[in-house]
Every structure is written in structure tokens, then in C-alpha cells.
């Protein structure tokens, strides 16, 4: 039985062209970008060219890109770096209840260090309400950190509206764009964000490499110290092969963005129509008209997520019940709790399907066929 991977929101397979670019860099770029000899200059050029490609993908300047070890490090640098750089100006931070744990756990740690954290609620579509944000904003707010697109239900947050409000406020504005990057157009000036984090492994690049956008003159204290790499913002010899591969993945993602959006919308239609035709009782979590196209979170009536996931895996279908960063845990999703409350049956019967590279209509149709068979068997339908 062929395995079908429908968990691209957790991580994605590397694109063959990305692998080729990385292998070429591993074989041919041996120098340290900080060295002044020829091999160092070759590495520096590869680094600079990659930085330019990635900066252009979000309409930023080259020197506003900081390379990191991944999305979690980028979030941590944004949050701790801002809090420590600006703590004399205030100690209030605003975030949301549906953030990735890289944001939530960073905020929890800051709360033990004297910072006050406001966690904005979301509606039953998983979206922060702008009026709630306005009510939470204080004179001593130094950081607002709200994700662009949710990794569990795909909900797109009102980042542009919040950014407009903060234009006349002192707070630094950070968005975690890890799940949104590569599938929706991003312009940091239009969004009016000061910091934006993302990673390569969600867009068919390698794991262990990410970036943080830092708008010029935005206060930020380094979290990793040592050498003067990344303009003294992130010490450590740059991972040139992974950065080159990251840039290649970005290049491909930018070229294929519109095609992927249409393709994933088509996959969603296949799944929804097949479930409906089979008489399966289900409900989509989140508003699809305001959602990332690759993430589809569905609640199935009379199902239990543990046995559901096991049966799907045995049928060769890889999916998730929530964020992969809580792997091994079947605790209720904090995102679904925020959306529906801690007593909702959706906490125990919801599955996330996420689309990406390597899928086509035939594969998704086959996956849906197996899905229907499992649901009917487990519900005795």
C-alpha cells in the first residue's frame, strides 16, 4: 500500500532542486563567510545572494534579514530580543491564545521575569478580533506578537489592521509567518510589521535553518552571543549550504505560489465532496474563505482522535491532530480549546489534513477513499 503524506503543515519533503542546490554548496563552498581569502569570499557571495533572494520575497532590504536555526529560534529572538532591549520602556506584551508554542512558551518565561502578558481570545473561526486588541493595548506595551496564519486550522489573522493601529504606538510588532510564508504574498511594509519569522522546512527546504526579518532601527538584543555574524544580531558561523538551499526553496515557492493556491483549493474540494457524497457527518474548523489553502482541519462526528490517527496511519495516510511540536502528546489542541472551549467534543475528534509538494488529484482522491472507509468502519455507518 502506497503511503500518502498529508501532514505538510508539520514539515515538508525537500524539493529535488533544493537538494541539488544544497549538495552543490556542500561540495563546492568550503570557506567561512567571515574569512577574507578567496574561499571565504566565495562563501560570502553565496550568503549575500541568498539573503537578497529571501529579502525580496517579503519586500525587505537585504540587511534586514537575520539567519537563524529555524522558526522557533526566530520567534525566540524576536520575543526575548525585544523584551530585553525595551524593558526600561515597559513590560507589557500582547499575544494570542492560538500562537505556536515557540511564542507561547517564550511569553510564559517572560512572565516569570516580571513581564505582563495579555493573551487575546479568538472567535470560533480562530481569528483575533481587532476590538479586543485595541482594548488590550496599553501605553507600556512594548511588544505585540501575533501569527499571520495558524498552523492548526489555517486562520489568517488581521495583521494589516493591527499594524495600522500600531503605527502611532511605541510597541514593536512581530508576526510568526512560518505557516503562511510561501503560500501567500507577504509585504512587510503593507503589513506594517517590525519583525517577521519563518523557516525553510515548511516550504520544501532543509530543517534547521530559518530567518527573522528585522525592520531597520527596530530595537533587538542578541540572544546568542559570540562572533559578529549577522551584524552582531546572531552569533555563529552561518550555515551556508542550508542558507543556499533555503533561498532555492524560496525562489521555487515564489514562482509557484498562485499555482499552489489553486491546486490546494482543488484538493480541499475533492475531500469535501467525497465526504459529503459518502454521507459522512463532519464539520470544517475555521472559516475557509479566510484561511491558508494548505491547511484543512475537520471534525468528525462520533470519532475519537487516538484510534482515528492509528487507523489512518495503518492505512498509509499521514495526518495530524494538531501541531507537530507536541508530537507524542494527544492532549487537546490549545487552538481548538481557544476556539470552542475546553468541553467541546471537537477537541477529541478533529484531524488536520495539510497539502503540499508531491500530491495530485489522484493521490488525494485515493487518500479520501481510504478516509471514508475508516470513518464508516469506526462509526459502524
UniProtKB/TrEMBL annotation:
Cofactor section: pyridoxal 5'-phosphate
Family the UniProt entry places it in: Belongs to the class-V pyridoxal-phosphate-dependent aminotransferase family. NifS/IscS subfamily.
Reaction catalyzed: (sulfur carrier)-H + L-cysteine = (sulfur carrier)-SH + L-alanine
EC number: 2.8.1.7
InterPro entries named in the record: Aminotrans_V_dom, Aminotrans_V_PyrdxlP_BS, Cysteine_dSase, PyrdxlP-dep_Trfase, PyrdxlP-dep_Trfase_major, PyrdxlP-dep_Trfase_small
An MF annotation (GO) of this entry: iron-sulfur cluster binding
Taxonomy, superkingdom: Bacteria
Keywords, alphabetical: Iron, Iron-sulfur, Metal-binding, Pyridoxal phosphate, Transferase
Pfam family for this entry, one: Aminotran_5
PROSITE patterns attached to this UniProt entry: AA_TRANSFER_CLASS_5
Chain ranges of the Aminotransferase class V domain: 4-357
PANTHER family reported in the protein's UniProt record: CYSTEINE DESULFURASE, CYSTEINE DESULFURYLASE FAMILY MEMBER
Name of protein: cysteine desulfurase
Gene3D superfamilies on file: 1.10.260.50, Aspartate Aminotransferase, domain 1, Type I PLP-dependent aspartate aminotransferase-like (Major domain)
